[in-house]
Amino acid sequence: MRVVVLGATGQAGRVVSRLLLEEGGIDLVVCGRNESRLRALESSLSDNGGSVSTAAFDLSDSARLDSVLESADVVIGATSSWRDGPWIAERAIQNRTSYLGIYMSTPEKWTQLRALQDDCLKQQVAVVDDGGVHPGLAGAMIRFVNEESPLAAAWVGGKFALRWSALDLAPETILDFVAELRAMDPTLYLDGEWVRGYRHARRFDFEDGRGSTSCVPMCLEEVRELVKEVPDLRSAGFFIAGFGPLVDYAVLPLGLALGGLHPSAAARWVWWGLRRFASSEECAALVLQAMTRDGRQIRLRVSHPDAYALTAIPAVAAVRQLLAAPRPGAWTQAAFVEPRPFFESIQTRGVSVELEGHAL
């Protein structure tokens, strides 16, 4: 099976590429704009065995992109901007190649991707986005528990701590990150109605030794579609932890205000603040707090010490299902994957999956 990774030299792209080779039976093509970085990545991957080749080009070169995709089974979008996702998906469909995007969740992106539904069905390929962990896991966690015990309420909290001072991020990635924060929609589904506002923050215990953490609502496409599909689900939402007091209450407000006028300056300010003041710990965890229709409380915790690993491992698990059964259509990762095999797969890769305090 041939898998193409676009943006392979990025933080998530490198880990995804390594994990794909470890899967075995993958003919991997790693792509990016910088040829020297691609050669370095190819060299680092050579110890993992398998077949690796490189292709250096810009995504705006549609002819070059098509030439890479025409013989691929799956293409993974791990570039710096979510705006690349719909473009890659369009080219993938034309080349009858299935697609997985590891991008932020935005209404604009999903308007474009949903418009590709008929083309997906015609070409018999799957277009999957909101891949990885955030978005990607929250909806899958709710679906997994709901299959066993129908739910009336489901809240998922996420905490992702990075050692920002050690990261080497492209300027486009930082710009996209600031844009994501500015576009953040604090909407959730509460008692049968969509409500909006940071006043609906909830506390989650991520079992990181810091007690409960306040998390603010952040609307994801995978939660919106769940509410439509599960009529008995009366309350649902995703919530995200902050970066620490100085960043949350000083750096970010100024950066977000500046972002509308001078995006580049805002990105530099936020990047400086994260590297200077954000926590230096590394961890990634999601916690589902759920109530069944018969009133029972259920808790599911998914975690890994490395946030980029917790992005890449679910993405690779989704690719495995894409290669095995590429169900045609436009999907979120959470809706596409079969929940139990998906969580069993990520657990074998070192992700901790604990249901009611016990391993899956």
Q: Mean pLDDT across all residues, rounded?
A: 91
Structural class assignment = alpha/beta
Q: Helical residue percent?
A: 40-55%
CATH topology of the largest domain: Dihydrodipicolinate Reductase, domain 2
The outline comes out as: globular
- Which oligomerization state do the chains in this entry correspond to? single chain
Record the strand order, biggest sheet.
Answer: 10-11-12-7-13-14-16-17
Strand content: 25-35%
**CATH superfamily descriptor of the largest domain:** Dihydrodipicolinate Reductase, domain 2
Number of domains: 2
Distance between the termini: 30 Å
Number of strands: 17
Provide a count of the helices. Answer: 14
Classified by CATH, the class of the largest domain is: Alpha Beta
Main beta-sheet strand count, sense and barrel state: 8 strands, mixed
Radius of gyration of CA atoms, rounded to a whole number: 20 Å
Uncertain spans, ≥5 residues at pLDDT below 50?
none
CATH architecture of the largest domain: 2-Layer Sandwich
Task: List strands and helices in order, with pairings.
Layout: E1 2-6, H1 11-23, E2 27-32, H2 35-45, E3 51-56, H3 62-69, E4 74-77, H4 84-94, E5 98-101, H5 107-114, H6 117-123, E6 126-129, H7 138-148, E7 151-161, H8 171-183, E8 187-190, E9 193-196, E10 202-205, E11 212-217, H9 221-229, E12 235-241, H10 245-259, H11 263-277, E13 283-292, E14 297-304, H12 307-324, E15 329-332, H13 333-336, H14 339-348, E16 352-355, E17 358-359
Parallel strand pairs: 1-2, 1-4, 2-3, 4-5, 5-6, 6-15, 7-12
Antiparallel strand pairs: 7-13, 8-9, 10-11, 11-12, 13-14, 14-16, 16-17
Helix pairs in contact: 1-12, 8-11, 10-11, 12-14
